[in-house]
Write a structure and sequence with these properties.
The structure is a homooctamer.
Chain A (H helix, E strand, L loop, with lengths): L5 H5 L7 E5 L5 H13 L4 E5 L6 H14 L3 E7 L4 H8 L4 E6 L7 H8 L8 E2 L4 H16 L3 H16 L10
Parallel strand pairs in A: 1-2, 1-3, 3-4, 4-5
Helix pairs in contact in A: 2-6, 3-4, 6-7
């Protein structure tokens, strides 16, 4: 069953500017939150499995051709010794956003350090561990795209305003 | 003594698109690596001290007016309970990059968690602790700007190529 | 469904001296332990949702007006990159007590460090992670109020004495 | 050589309302920052060595008689398995502020957890590890006293305003 | 329901030489493993709830009178900011064994550091977090008593030999 | 019920070259993943329980005779204060691979540090915490054996190729 | 140069009841604090280097013969993957006290977990990381011996009383 | 200045079977301990700088051709977000040994987790953080080679025996 990919829904002919890649199928329950956010903002994206360790050449090919294919931002999620975001950033100068997936034994602390502690020269903009990080990777991609696309900026600001308005004044015992 | 600000050197009339803000003067020895990288790529920037805790209104004013002033990317560095990057991101939808400054007792682990573990809705693209993170924040800002400015992309790719070429084949005992 | 607020029960016209604020509805199952403690001691309070990241202006307005509204102590709970207690303390010189809410991936370790590691100049009195911390924030608020209100001191000391007496001499297999 | 104790300087006959206690002489280079802050705000205090482990009865006597002696706030600093703040809080219902002193092997992480993770029933308002925490314990004591003493509130707010004004606009290379 | 106390079973008139104390009833599911081990070795013990924070005077009285009552070894279990073992050791020169009880948020890491990181002068012999630690506290108490009681040494060595013999040669899929 | 041991299935007379040892039966649900991998590659192995702490002489005898018995690689799994891999490596110069078993309180962080932080002179090649580590220990044993046995190299490379091919191009919502 | 061994000074013919063993010469600057404490209390001891990894048979021989040689308590210090205390405890039912030596990279956190997290069945009474732990191991050995030797108890209690008396009332700026 | 490479000294025509690779020149002060160990055992090796992030294609070419060039074991050292060992293991089925280099902010904890926490399918045999790990990587390489080369086994066993003999019986104050 194929994940929803908004570009086919909202802009059939548009080349997506955002790629969401992940190390394995097991990362999708986390990374789909990035996809949902982009769906909410009507930003086309493509979701792919690209494993740094099991499919290193697929990863290299993806990274080396990402800009010429039209991608502007790459969201990469991985867990444990999470090498995918950093290695993709080694082969492309596009902005790469990293999402540390929560791991079994160490709760994503290994994922976080493996992604964020990149040496000088190859940056990965890292978001929070798990679902919040995936949602925020989507938001940050929108934020980057908004610099060149006023329509995205408008949708992003509307999303933020609606979110602000949705915050209740008082906590409720019934929720 | 005022830090070098390349916009006065290379593009006198240009409004800088990158803001480098930090919580205190003591963060500058770290954050100047972001400035140096931007100098290397001839990207104008403005460096300011904006303390979330000591000057919260200055922070709010900065964040709320950043986009209209012409900034496109905000680099924010702070240490300890580092609230500056996340709070700036609460008041602007511009992309915010966070640099965890190495702290005295906990070596920046507190800075890192305070910056990267943002809740869903308000993203901060977090780089590594310390100098490497500051350099990479500069590179990531360049990467984002390169999407709309081919000249920056060319300089960024040249910087990366030169860096790749500078890697020696063998380690040396004399260094 | 609105949480019980003892001021309406025990002192209808009294302006509560304690504010319990939290970053989101999801913090209420933790923060209600502060409310219950204050209920136990018949200390009026007001419970509000004030999100540092989603409603930063609500937060600022709350903090700036808290003293003139009659609040004496602010209890602030938040999780993850928990900026609420520290940012409130940036806008008010009232005593602010911070409760690190247990987070999903890092069990509140991120919440704790984000709250307690404040830089010199802006203090947050931090309690334990989770429910124990929320209860103790209520107790500490009572302790502070007891300095000026002997009746609270009497109730607080009675609460403590009762608690001491309730400790069984021997462990029981049946509990 | 005896540490400066502002009550003898500024208010000879005043009973200090703040006690600064610490587990050993080796904690004084940290805890003196609490004393200096109180000196700055002209708040009398008394500084004492009270070791939970070496002088447990001194600690108990101190805690049990603190309120009747006229103390309103207790600042307690300790390192490693830091039991002083929590044990003092077990014998008094006065507000107790804890300062985790930076330890040799674990940089104060053990001190922090030993102080902050108190069980429900006995609160310790914990500040940051080390010097920042000691300064902030002084500030929080002032904040608590300010509730009943407008003059302290005025001095505290003036201190905060001066601090805000002292933040430079731009970082300086010469510092 | 009162926990089994082997001294009534095996040596009605014997004063137990081992005390098992714990901070609260909730520690008993862990600490009963110490009791069971002592039951296995027919070593009388007494199990008591002694809370450092809720019943500090009970704790002090217990510790100060422990040696004259005939206790030789004290096993103390506690969780979180676990002060019980160290404070008991402050009032008695009997050997004190500490068991870090697994805590809710930090899995006993806080308990461990609060117990083991005692300053020079007041030792606590610390065992592992949780059930294994409780069992081993019982074994270590037996080991200490065995120095003066050959019968205990014989039972201890027999227990160890039986345990060695019980280790299967190969793992089994059916268990 | 005895675990499958491939040497009886695929090469009845072959002395297995790989030993899989573990500290207790409770480690088998983890360590069987090493066995399954070796089964997949038709590499004979022997699985044994060898407890460093309960059966130290069995451990020593095993380690001292391992090479002469024909073993070439030893896979050792243990949890908590995991001494088995390092102690076996102290008595044999065969390559020893360590698998940190996930522990109850600390999620295998203690196991990992106890295994990997060996002093200079006695190496243990350590794999990841838990099941992934056990599988990889099997793979690394195969990798070592492949240096001298081309057939194993062929099977190992085929296993890796099949694994690469099995990675789907896109994530699926239905899994 | 041979370390002072008090048994030759104070009781030439006495068989020492305490063994201080350590994994390497580099542990002596830590472990000598145990020796000094025993010197202070006139308790004979023997100090030896026994490496679990480099001299495993020496370790086994030491542990197996320790009781018959007349030792009553074993103090074992080691760093990193510190297996010495636990392995000695595997071969003797004498009480074993473990001292985690501060390690280079992880400051003794690895040493601590390797020593304290022993599985049920083989206890090691663990003291603090580093010098405080070594001193306390000496004190705990004295405490154990005091159960059978009133003279040691008297000296131990005198040591503790003197230490209590030595605590100054106030901190001093001149130290 | 070129590091000593023993193959030119001891076996001019021999193709080295061990490769020592590292992410940057700054790793050499750590990794040279692997080289020195191999020198001690007269095992030829080649030392190269191969940066995963700055020279990803050099890394890929190295890994893909390593077996055909005659390498049998690869030792890879890196720090921070240390991707080199795992990525090399993605492109070769040779045994890969990883050395976590001690990093500036996190003391190699990030390096360790980035190397050891590999997902199932791609193993890296990880050694200790820093110099001990580098020495042990050399020893483990020797151990692996010893399976096919009795001369190496003899030299390895002699090295171990000499090391065992070099352990003094007693600690010395003069060292």
């Amino acid at each position: 069953n194929f994940p929803s990919m908004s570009q086919t829904d909202t802009a059939p002919s548009a080349q997506p500017k955002v790629a969401i890649i992940m190390g394995s199928q097991s990362d999708w329950p986390t990374m789909k939150y990035a996809a949902e956010l982009l769906d909410d903002l009507s930003i086309p994206y493509e979701a792919r499995i690209v494993s740094a360790h099991r499919t290193p050449d697929r990863m290299r090919n993806f990274a080396m051709s990402a800009r010429e294919k039209g991608f502007a931002v790459i969201i990469a999620g991985a867990g444990g010794a999470a090498h995918l975001p950093g290695m993709v950033a080694a082969w492309t100068s596009l902005p790469v956003l990293g999402v540390p997936v929560q791991s079994a034994a160490l709760s994503g602390k290994d994922s976080l350090l493996s992604i964020v502690q990149m040496p000088a020269g190859v940056p990965v903009g890292t978001l929070a561990i798990g679902k919040a990080g995936a949602t925020n990777a989507g938001l940050m991609a929108a934020s980057i795209l908004s610099l060149g696309e006023p329509a995205i900026r408008d949708r992003l600001d509307a999303w933020r305003t609606a979110r602000t308005k949705s915050v209740a004044e008082h906590p409720s015992d019934s929720e």
